[in-house]
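Entry for magnesium ion complex. Fields follow.
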Amino acid sequence: MRFYTALINEKEEVLVAFREGGRAYRLKKLAALAPALAVKDMEEIIRRWSVLRGPLEAMSRSEDVLTAAAGELNELALSAPLPRPRQDVICLGINYEEHAEEADKFSSADFGGQRPATIYFSKRVNEAVAPGAFIASHAPLVDSLDYECELAVILGRDCYGVSEAEALDYVFGYTILNDVSARNLQTRHKQWYLGKSLDGFTPMGPCIVTADEIGDPQALTIESYVNGEVRQHSNTKFMLQTVAGAIAELSAGLTLQAGTVIATGTPAGVGMGFDPPRFLRAGDVVDCYVEKIGHLINRVS
Ligand code: MG
């Protein structure tokens, strides 16, 4: 299943589609057929997934009766699927080998050296940027605006001390996140939080695809394009730390709450990886793609 958040009559609503490219149905309307589906937002879907999954799967097998509840996706004003994550997004840094090499070349002092263990940092997201909405350029504060296409994991249940073998059972679904970064702030402050957390720096979407539909998260093509030109082209099998490994490692001493978003790092091909660097400019269109999820497209303001 694929869950969307959209603005309908100026209010956020959750919609579900049962297949890629299929019709999206308003949960609010489906609740007339199954009252359990009267949820207020995506967070509630995630937390109550064990109860909601059954009725939704039953509906997916009789889609013909649902037409009245459909919204056509291209007519909807999509929001980010989780417009305001309850906690900071947890990010993995330098999690693809070739990206490690390009970052080292850009600034060895900031990105070089040995990394025997996974780098974790966080990113404040007051409001995630909707598909089609603007990435804020923040000139002149930011002079080196960069994109990072990433697979993002949404946890479905609280977890503490889970093993790598059981970690994926805690995943609700996956989405695409563009970890927009101000390289000048990221390097100036020696800690990445500020340079990653500016308003308008976290495009997310277009939807959350449930874990069952994704299957193996380490076998997905991941790409980005700027103004139609391919910049990143890789596969999640090249992650240094896997999704399951990260959940196990993080949860070993930290309770990860349902609804937690984990951004799993970006492959090579970001703007700072070019010589000279190719940072984003006003008007540029950034298209982030992950197989089985779709495209997340935003323009720089
Ligand atoms: Mg990143």
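NOTE: The chain has two domains: 2-79, 89-300.
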